[in-house]
Fold these 2 entries.
Entry 1:
Amino acid sequence: MTKNENPQAGDVRHDVGLLTEYDIHLFREGSHFGLFRKLGSHTISREGEEGACFAVWAPNAESVSVVGDFNRWSPVSHPLRAREDSSGVWEGFIPGVLKGQVYKYHIVSRNGGYTVDKGDPFAFRWEAPPRTGSCVWDLDYEWSDADWMKKRRECNSLEAPMSIYEVHLGSWRRVPEEDNRRLTYRELAHSLAGYAGEMGFTHVELLPVMEHPFYGSWGYQTVGYFAPTSRYGSPQDLMYLIDHLHRSGVGVILDWVPSHFPTDEHGLAYFDGTHLYEHADPKEGFHPDWKSAIFNYGRNEVRNFLISSALFWLEHYHVDGIRVDAVASMLYRDYGREEGEWVPNRWGGRENEEAISFLQRLNEAVYEKFPDVQTFAEESTAWPMVSRPVYVGGLGFGIKWNMGWMHDTLEYFSTDPVFRKYHHQRLTFSLWYAFTENFVLPLSHDEVVHGKGSLAGKMPGDEWEKSAGLKLLFGAMYGHPGKKLLFMGGEFGQWKEWDHDESLEWNALEYPSHWGVQKWVRDLNGLYRSEPSLHELDFDEKGFEWVDFHDWEQSVVSFLRRGSGTDDVTLVVLNMTPVLREGYRVGVPRPGFWGESLNSDAMDYGGKGYGNLGGKDAEPVPAHGKDFSLTLTLPPLSALFLVSHKPLK
């Protein structure tokens, strides 16, 4: 980091600042969504004098000063001055402070003389944990992803294929020869982009990269809402990673956590000696599940802060989507609470009106400025119209995680095949509501931690049956309407539960059962992307038609997927038991040849090699309400994809 001579004690200019009266007007009314340009620290030159402007919101402070490595952390050397407009903003220009210097705000509160050193809520960089200082920094970077940015509207469209690889950067791959060292952003750039591209994923989703004190929180206890964690490098290093992913044709989605924040002393909690960002009443401001603070969404300045954060990552880091964590915990005042532990809304209900309004305004702001991105809601309840526009009463998200599908599907696949016929509805129920929202089907990190075991470990049976069951699970996922999300390690059938302190089990790829799963996922991604019938109408009931979901006795289901054109029809047949079924008749809507595009039991995937010799000709034998049918061999624990490109007559 750059160093310089220490500025002289008390050398602060209060006639230089970035905030205008109009900024303050927008700030007060809750509509200033570019606060990162005004608050925080910014290196500037005024009349030939280099230095940094500082501005912080602390309305209940008696005094605020900047302390740092440039003044030996003296709380009296560089005081800021409160603006005279009663905005609660303190500001000042300190000559000689340059990029790379570390600082905090020394705050003396009006509230009983409470004194604390706080990191900058708007800092672009923080020291690497466990150190807790903010760093004066800039966001200069020469981007090379113009081609991606021009076409990303098409890549992020609801009609486009979207296959998301969810990644925790600190444990995707490590360097065992160097004491299990984590890779840097720049080291990850080429290996991750190359792997994701080779595997056919359209996007990667990064678990929160925003600065967080506790590594074991995976980033979900955020303290730096405008700074990537320094564990892996600088802000420009993260920009390089995203830039390289884009140049490799891979989009980037960031996890973002506006639902709660940690109570570490250097962070947002009790910022100026009062509950500034959070509710004062613990029934509203403290999350019992996560032992963290809850934002006060009814406060305009807090809404400014959060929406500015979301837009910041879209603007300065070129990300293609924001996945909003724990939306259900925001929507319900009684989330995770017992009777008497929560405060009803003004109507006596459990809905959090302020959070609803915040989420709607967030999505409006995002799509107004960045219409070519997507917002994703991790929402686990039946809240209506999460992915419907605000103007019709929805929350305004582009896409919602389908948690119901995930729970039912994993419970079904964890069941011994002998008993699956008694749980057939878990396999089929999701189609009753599949088009009520724009869904993504998530097999996420949450399902492979805390004793839940890996995806492969959930499958019953011996090693071959586990491998076959996992491939079948992925086949069911890619056939089902909705976009796809898979957490790292699942794509090659990692046996171990995910551990954030260790690398994925890449050595498992030495064994056929694992490289077979990996090749199956790669080919699923290829078919999903190349066949419009598997993605164009993911959110339209016209894109799906059951052939037969009644064969619970044999645990077999079959259905059709269609694209927007009549030429695009794919038949998916799933055999959920380890029983080989020959001569199984399935109705189809047209004559001609149906090519077996994918068969999870192929020997290329470590299967037994049963199949249909590349495809079948439809016979004029009615079945399942269709005029034609196929006589198929259904391999044990298998997914078949048969494609017909002939037009309907």
Entry 2:
Amino acid sequence: MNVLRRIEAAIFLGAIFTVASCKNSQNEKENLMPRTNRLINETSPYLLQHAHNPVDWYPWGNEALERAKTENKPILVSIGYSACHWCHVMERESFEIDSVAKIMNENFICIKVDREERPDIDQIYMASVQAITGQGGWPLNVFLTPDCEPFYGGTYFPPTKMYGRPSWTDVLHSISNYWKQNPNEAKQQANELKIHIEKISKIQQTQGKLTPTLLDSAYEHSAKHFDTIHGGFGMPPKFPHTMELMTLLRFYSRTKNEGALKIVEFTLQKMANGGIYDQLGGGFARYSTDEKWLVPHFEKMLYDNALLSRTYLEAFQTTKNPFYKQVAEEIFAYILEKMTSKEGGFFSAEDADSEGEEGKFYVWTKKETEEVLNKKEAEIFNGFYDVTEHGNFENGKSILNIQFSFEDYAKTNKLSTAELSQILKTCKQKLYAIREKRTKPGLDDKIIVSWNGMMLYSFVQGYNIFQNKIYLETAKKNANFILAKMTQKSKSTLKTYLFRTHKDGKSHLNAYLEDYSIFGLALVELYSATGETKWLVEAEKLAKTMIDEFWDNDEKGFFFVGKNHEKLIVRTKDFYDNATPSGNSVALDFLLRLSTLTDNKTYKKNAAETLESIVLVAEKYPGSFGYVLLTTDFAIENPKEIVILGNENKEFLKALYSDFYPNKVVVLANNFTKDDEKIVPLLEGRTKIDGKTTAFVCKNFVCKLPVTDVKDFEKALKN
């Protein structure tokens, strides 16, 4: 873009003229008097972190946008989230500095956005920055015209020129001067970017046919990018790629291709033994900065742990390896202890930093462990978890990780595996108790519907597989909390409207497609685990709202925001799966499962039309459509419809969930009414045989003979 090149040239020239006047500004003694800006009235932890900056921050809203138009000033939108390390760095280096704030306040209308509260805003402006720079990330700093159209932006900018990046003050001066001198050029650039965003938000829809070849191509893609030495995919930074792993488990279940299972197992074991996993407290960090999974970006996100616990559960069902069960249970324990509110909501994240230092809470020196453990314990623990004199991290500190097999390490140290297990358990308890006395990373305690839905889903599966009633109680409490505190019900239309976020007793902001689809899917699974019809009724209300608010009658698929949402510069659609599945991906899964249970043809039609319109693109770029592939597997398979009648069903459920049957819907019932049959047609005409617990295994509403013996049930499941 020619206009963009002129803006970049202006920044370069601006740097020449401003460096002399700004070079000492970062060392100035700043005003330490207490102060607040408009963010003080927000509930978002990220926005509140910036509430005492000298920058005259606004939250996104009419007050700021109207002022920009009135004063004809460009808007600076700075986007991040509370657990973002480099967001904190830029705040310390720039946003807390009076002299920098003065430049920002005089030349721009400054708006802070929490990307987790407002993914709609983040999505639009992230696309513009990726178009400008070829990359994205957070903090995201975007300059807009007074009409909210982006004309320049980037991610992190340092206080002085370094890393090949101009300084933040250079950028501010240059963009301000450019806007004053070339407003028409800036608007031209903004218009080009807007057209670009509109274009990429519409996936090229081509009618395709659902066939197993889509899953074959996904396996080939995964095998090609698989790291055979360290596990995972691609080059660092390395992310868990949970949806890709879950797709491979389904591919293995269908084909018994050992190569697919090897990729999954090797990756899951390497990750759980690495520094990305909290060896003392459970739970995974967001990603690894290196190829070995050793050095994580230490923040812990709810969504990662929801998806990873689900992946380890599915791996346990597939392989029966108790290691995967242990990891899943440790994640659940971490969530229950650290990330669950008294009311039942799940918190969003734990920060990477404590006391201004990334990872400080999690790392150890050899001296520190030796002060807590006795000599034998320290020798065993430090050897097993790679705590050395020189360390494997910064300043002689060590990130706990495992480099030996448990059996080999026991043999080397002349211990039985039981003895080694007990020693390590004791050591971990002692060190965890000491770690709990350290200054803890910041907690983002806002509650987001879609992320809660992912964790709710995983707890339901944990209950199904392990029959741990605590997991079911947790799932129910979470569902009840969201339905009670984060919904608005429409009596006239029998629909339910969701809020996006909840904190400090306040729920607000319109929910997005992902909130409806992910929470709705979790309620379907909760119904299947309990047989309580109320959960399915609530799921249907969400489905009706989702279709009415988000469905695109013209081009099919669902919009990211509802029709009654605030009007932004574009109304986007999101099909691509990233760290979390897209709203469209899960909507397909939600509607297909719901239609199988309720025989609602509208749900099935909407899902089928969307899936068939993107299948060819998904086949071409399988790495970007992980959850779409899961849904495709369900759609191709023609899922099993399983009905179990009777309260004495424990052995039947054990048989059902001890193996991996991903493509199924489950109905549990005992005494049911005609109204229940109307809600779930799969119940019609079902009766117990001789008063015994009776199971029906069906496909496409065609059933095998009902069985009352668990072994016969197992045979029916496998055939």
